[in-house]
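Let's sit down with a protein and look at its sequence and fold side by side. Please make up or recall a protein chain and show it to me in full. Label the sequence line and the structure token line clearly, so we can match residues to local backbone shapes. Go ahead whenever you are ready, and we will take it from there.
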Amino acid sequence: MKAPELILVPTDMSVYSLAALQYAQVVASMFKASLMLVHVFEPGEPAAVNDASKQAESREDLEKRLRHILSKLLIDNKLVEHSIRIEIRYGSPAHQIVKTAKAVDADLIVMSTHGRTGLRHVMLGSVAEKVVRFSSCPVLTVKPEEFRELVDITKEDIEQSLHLTS
């Protein structure tokens, strides 16, 4: 296994994806790797980047505005210790992330999960899950802090769950 030289970090501009970027920066520092941030714009995206007053703007203007928003997000959250290339793609997030990783020959994808479970997960699907399934390079998923549960499991818990004790 070779050390990663280019790490792709998908972002939907949520706090979850910022956590993945922080994690990616640590990995990049360890291996002296480059980082590339990719945002996939879905038509009809309800985010701040798609407000009603701006819907008629050209793709070029939209890309410019998205790059500005992402740059500001990086600066505001003090996430600019590395030089970060920003890529904007259009379409289905999972498909475009996998396609971008292949096109730029990424060695690793670091992305966050949103912690959805149950019916919401089934209905919305999971971009991270699809990327893991279809990516040709390794994918490191980062679970958001608020969804991490520290559970101490004892031998007795296991035995009780397996009905080995009475």
